[in-house]
Amino acid sequence: MGLGQPALSHQLRRIERMVGGSLFHRDQHGVRPTELGALILRRAKAIVLTFDELEHDFHRQEPETGESMRIGWNDSAITGSLLAGLRDLRPGEPFRTRADTSRTRLLAQVANRGIDLALIMICGRRGLPVPPEVRTLTLVEEPSFVAVPAEHPLAGEEEIELAELAGEDWIVSSGGDGCRVVFREMCLAHGFDPRITHDVDIDTAREDLVSGGHGVGLVQPTRPPSDGLSIRPLAGAPMCVRHVLAWREDGPCAPGVAELADEATAGYWRLAERTAPYHAWLHRHGRLAAG
């Protein structure tokens, strides 16, 4: 750790105060971890290994020989069809995936060769700061829908006016590099400051909270129906999300990225046709222009 004995002892006492117990037994036989100390050491080892992997990804300049292709992704509905397309177009080639709520981190990993391809989601109409060595392609732009409890008074509406949800508790993701800001701006433009009660980054957990009657939240329109909640369009599509591929022009994905994008996009629209609320919305309004 690069610390002298007094500084190390001080740091250990500080950690012990923070966790509320002793980390080590000290006696004439030496020093042994307590039960709490052993738990902390196991957790710390896992954290150190994770940071070692992160440093490896961010600072490696060239992929290792024979390494699997590395794909990073946000919580995009296109992920399944993207990976299926990759498997079909590159049969026998292994690949690894990593989920991350931050598009900024994913773009940085593409730029630094930590991953070879990223599938990211961008909320709203704002531009996307992209490292100069990274290329991007918008696959789909979609409207955000809202999930409400199945017994909610608005659950049967064809489309829900956002202003009608002004008094609701909202369940939102705290990640997403600005999506929360875009969400709040959208609500303010419709006359209310949203009451954000639950910060939850896991989509299934957000939907569980909705179905349990704890609030409402935005979802992708391709979310399949599930017990206890109703997924409805927002009138006027006040918030849209873009699904974007990112890769290095000199990376291993570059030669076939156009064909892969076509496969992934086709899979998305097949999913959209199978999702009743979105299918009906598309019939009324048509597809949004990707751009």
TrEMBL record:
A single GO molecular function term of this UniProt record: DNA-binding transcription factor activity
Query: What Pfam families has UniProt attached to this entry?
Result: HTH_1, LysR_substrate
Membrane-spanning residues: none
Q: Name one GO cellular component term.
A: protein-DNA complex
**Alphabetized UniProt keyword annotations:** DNA-binding, Transcription, Transcription regulation
**Among its keywords, does the record have Protein biosynthesis?**
no
Q: Which domain of life is it from?
A: Bacteria
Asked whether the keyword Lipid biosynthesis is assigned, the reply is no
List the PROSITE patterns.
Answer: HTH_LYSR
- Which PANTHER family did the record assign? SMALL NEUTRAL PROTEASE REGULATORY PROTEIN (PTHR30346:SF30), TRANSCRIPTIONAL DUAL REGULATOR HCAR-RELATED (PTHR30346)
Name of this chain's protein? Transcriptional regulator, LysR family
